[in-house]
Every structure is written in C-alpha cells, then in structure tokens.
Amino acid sequence: MDTVNKIRTSELQLAQKQTYDWVGKGFHLLFLCSAMVGVVSVATIGGFLFYEGLPAFQEAGVSELILGSEWLPPALFGIFPMIVASLISTAGAVIIGVPVAILTAIFLAELAPKWLADIVRPAVELLAGIPSVVYGFFGLVIIVPAIETLFNIPAGNTILAGIIVLAIMILPTVITISETSLRALPSVYKEGALALGASHIYSIFKVLVPAARSGILTGVALGVARAIGETMAIIMVMGNAPAMPGSILEPARTLTANIAMEMSYATGIHASALYSTGIVLLVFIVLLNTTLLYVNRKRSC
Amino acid sequence: MNKLEVSNLNLFYGETHALRDISLEIPARQVTALIGPSGCGKSTLLRTLNRMNDLISGVKISGDVTFEGENIYSDVDVKQLRMRVGMVFQKPNPFPMSIYENVAFGLKAQGIKNKKHLDSVVEESLRGAALWDEVKERLDTPAFGLSGGQQQRLCIARAIAMQPEVILMDEPTSALDPIATHKIEELMDELRKKFTIVIVTHSMNQAKRISDKTAFFWMGELVEYGETSQVFNQPKDKRTQGYVSGEFG
Asked: What is the pTM for the complete model shown?
C-alpha cells in the first residue's frame, strides 16, 4: 500500500513538473519560428517570381523564351544567349578557380609553415570580404586591358574577363570550406598512411582529400552558386551585349546582368520577361545544387 | 639477437620531460609489452620507434635508437623505416576506401601496380590477419562496413602487407569488445612467429597472456624490464609490485 502511494505521489510530481515546462515549449516555438523564416522566404521568392514571370512565358512561349536567341524587347524575348553566357562564365570560373582553391586549402591545412599560413589565411579571408563592385574595378583596371594587349582585340570586356574575375571571387569560399574539412579529419588517417611508409604528398592525395571529399564538394557547390549569381562585377567587365557570343573573347550578358541592367526602366511584358529570366536562373541553381548533393551522397561510403 | 635497441633516450615535449634516460633492448620474434599508468611515456616510447613523434612540433630527442644496428634518427630514411617497422593504432583506422584498397595501400604508395602481385599480397595479408574468410566475397566494399574487430584486423593486414620486420601496436584492443580482443590476441600468437611485436597495453592481463617480456614505465622512467613471468610474479621494484598487484595505477 505504501509503495502504491509513493508511486502516486511521484506521478503527481511528474504531472506538476510537466505543466511547468513552458520554458521548453517556448524555446521549441522559437526554434520552429527561426527555421520557418528561411522556408517562408524561399517559398515567397519562388512564388513571386513565377507570378510575375508567367505572363512573359505565356506571351512569348516557353521555347521561344528559353531557346530564342534574339533579345529585342518588347518584341522578342530570347534569353538563350544569356543562359549560355551564365553557364560558360560559371564553368570557366570553376575550372580555373576550384583547382587553385583546393591546392591552397591543402597548402594551408597540411604543408605551409605556421608563419606563412598566418599570412595567407587572413589574405584569403579578406578576399571574401571585398564587395563585388570592387572586384569589378579590379577587373576593369587590370584584367580587361591585359586581355586587350594579350589577344590584340579592341575591347577587353569579354567572357574571359568575367571568368577570371569570378574565378578569383569563388576562391575564398572554396578555400575556407575545404581547409576546414581537411583540418576536421581525425589525425589517425594521416598517421595511418605515414606509418605505412607513404610519403606526405601521397597521403594527402590518396587519403586526406578523398576523406574530406564531401566538405570540399560543399565548398565547390557554394562557389558555383556564388559565380552564377554574381551580378555587379560581371556587368562591369563582360560587355553585356545581349547577342550570342561566338567565343570567350567576345562580350556577353549573363542572366543576372540582364535583370539588373533593365529592371529600372522595364514595364509590362518586358518586366515580366526579366522576372522569367529570374525563374530560369533559380531553376539552374536548384539543378546544380541537387546534382552536387546527389553526387556527394552517392559516392560517400 | 636484438631487433631494436634504445639507449639513454630522453624526450621532451616542449618543457615536459616525457622520457627519462630510457635504455632497453627488444629481442627479435618475441612480444614485448610496455605497461604503466596513463601518461607514463609508454606510447611516446612506442612512437619513437617508427619516428611517429616527428609529426608533433616541439619534440626534442637525445640518445640513440638503433634498428638492426642502424641509428633510425640518422642512418635510415624515415619512409624506409616505417615500411620495416609497421604500426597498428589504438582506434581502428581504415582509410575511406574498399577493403582491397586498404590492404594494397602501402604497396601502391611505393608505386607497385602489378595487379597479380597486389592480388596475391592482399589475399596473403588478409589470411595472415585471420580476416580472409570473412571478407573474400566483398573485397570491393567500403572498409567502414566491417565491425570494429574486423576493422582492426584489416589494419593489421594492411601493416603486414608491407612485410615489416617489427609491428608496433598502440593499445590495439582498447576500443574492442572481449570477443574481438580475444581474436586479436590469438592472431598475435600467430604473428609472433614471423614478426617482432611491441605492444602498449593498459590491460595487465593482456600483457600477462601474450607477452614474452614486459617493461614497466612510471613517470617517464623505465622502472623494470624483464621476462613477463618475472615482472608479474617476482617484481624487483616496489612500484612495479604495487602496479601489477593492482594497488594503484
């Protein structure tokens, strides 16, 4: 009988305690609300873009808009040249920037003496903080004239200039995330490889980099997103002609540049066509991210 | 015949005097156990034998370590040394690759590409580590799919694939359950026929079961070194007696 009473009393205490758990509930709600801010934002942006951009798709037709090569608002709304320009400038930036970034990350995490790492790392972090309009200046003053002299062309405002500026802009993102993931590896990987008589360099490329692969790919994904979304620096160095570029030594206009340059004066169906440019941009970013995530998940063991 | 000889070895981590004037001789094809409380220097000594302490900055070493009569800190290339003196770590540390690639790793690092040769070494090493029958059907699957005990035997296979003369083991069973530990101990009984084994262990029972010689360390000093039966049954030093009888430590 005594035991039964004890249990009852403790049940009662438990019940009382539960009613006092408003702090826990409150925090739960706070966390939930915080998490919702991001989701709601994405949904709003996506919904808004589609709402504003659909008229242009209806008016010009999906294939006319995406595959058309003439941009002459308010008559023709072909953004295919801009899709090409965005993809080529991003791909070029990745091809140049990612290897440089990964080698830098390896250098910082594994090879650099401390004093040198203490110079390189703050420099890289500073690079991340430079506003993109300043990158545009840099491109305009250094890279554009260099391309004019090097290739002997009248105007250096070309896709190549955009590629180089973007390659530099994605460096800090890829470097920082790759270095962090290399440093986060347990020391037993490196010790295990060295203990088998492998050289340091062999251990880095065969054990450490594959082990940090998922972090490095995350860095690359963020770099790609930064490159394809970059606007200001690109407008300043790429020439912005809305025609289909014949080579990377010709000017071109990216999707982002198209929106930024014409939004201030566009009205009606022209404005709607700019929103639909935004839809295409969003779709590309989602596709790229899901592809990289998929590759990341599939190959990790 | 002594495989390794340590004489008047002193080691400092910065200002900390971690090993004090250590001298000992490790005989070939026997199991030598290094025991003592945490922080006594036994793991540090083990890691001087394949120069793993080189990785830590601020380590200063004086005295001699010779391997087959050659000074490992001056006469031998460190990569060559580590091929001849293999190591198995406390926590199983397979690389993030397949079982096959793990075992072949050391040879591939030396530029050996001959598939037939690699195949035969992988099989031989996995047999040598008593793992072949458990994994022969899934050599291409990730090593992380194995159990902890299997992973540790894989690490032993990886070490013996290099055909080392010495295998250093740093508490190789401390992360394993008793059954996996028993398997590793059985395996060590096989390995002692071909290899010289130096093992650091926290378990005095393990030292008693598997070792021929035992060295007891205390605060960076080598207190007592002798035949395992002597160290456990008739210790000469009071500190050894206290430790092996379980009074402290």
From this structure: 0.85
